[in-house]
């Protein structure tokens, strides 16, 4: 079991067992963050899937909020890519991301977007099964509704998370899936989606890795990372169909 406490260091002090904002300006930010923390906890407790961290309880005390979860051992995919010489081939990508895709599909069917899929938010457990972490940016969505994400990670956030030009939707998470898979191949973070000039100079995965990787998988990754959301897989099933894994 693990307990996660909401206590942003730059906004708070600990006074005995109590968590208090350092000043009135910090109090406003602290209260907003605590509300978002509880929203994340409420959302997580409603999502039951073998590849999502299991929430046991959440509550308010000591003027702050706590989240009680099952504790899972493992290493994040981001750490594994930086610190090991893990061989990346089609089998590795599929064994890592097929369970993630199944989990994201389940979320989308419930009307929830994750909006912060990235290697650092994927825990690889000793059984090799992945677990999705950090639902702090997750949002409920409706068709043609244009919600705003709480936060984003450059390189993985879709173009529509950087602007209001297009609505968010399952296609937004598909961009992050493509970018995360691309990171596994390149061992580096893609350019930010708002930097169209840099992205336009980025060689396609199919061009770079076609001699050593399944072409359909490479083409699916390139498809998922299209700037125009209409030109991306609109659903997880679209992506799975493209790689013949539906």
Q: What's the quick description here?
A:
This protein is an alpha+beta fold and 246 residues long. It is built from nine helices and ten strands.
Comma- or semicolon-separated keywords:
40% helix; 246 residues; 2 domains; three-stranded antiparallel sheet; Transferase(Phosphotransferase), domain 1; alpha+beta; Phosphorylase Kinase, domain 1
Counting H and I runs of at least 4 residues, what is the number of helices? 9
Name of the CATH homologous superfamily of the largest domain: Transferase(Phosphotransferase) domain 1
The sequence of SSEs as H and E is EEEHEEEHHEEEEHHHHHH
The percent range for helix content is: 25-40%
- Structural class call reads alpha+beta
Give the percentage of residues in beta strands: 15-25%
Based on the coordinates given, report the CATH architecture of the largest domain.
Answer: Orthogonal Bundle
Structurally, the number of domains stands at 2
The major sheet is characterized as: 3 strands, antiparallel
Cα-to-Cα separation, first versus last residue: 35 Å
- CATH third-tier fold name of the largest domain: Transferase(Phosphotransferase), domain 1
The CATH first-level class of the largest domain comes to Mainly Alpha
Number of strands: 10
Strand order of the largest sheet: 1-5-4
**Mean pLDDT across all residues, rounded?**
89
The dominant shape is globular
Question: What order do the helices and strands come in, and which of them pair?
Answer:
Layout: E1 2-5, E2 12-15, E3 18-21, H1 24-46, E4 55-61, E5 64-69, E6 75-76, H2 77-83, H3 90-109, E7 112-113, E8 122-124, E9 130-132, E10 139-140, H4 159-162, H5 170-186, H6 196-200, H7 205-209, H8 215-224, H9 236-242
Antiparallel strand pairs: 1-5, 2-3, 4-5, 6-8, 7-10, 8-9
Helix pairs in contact: 3-5, 5-8
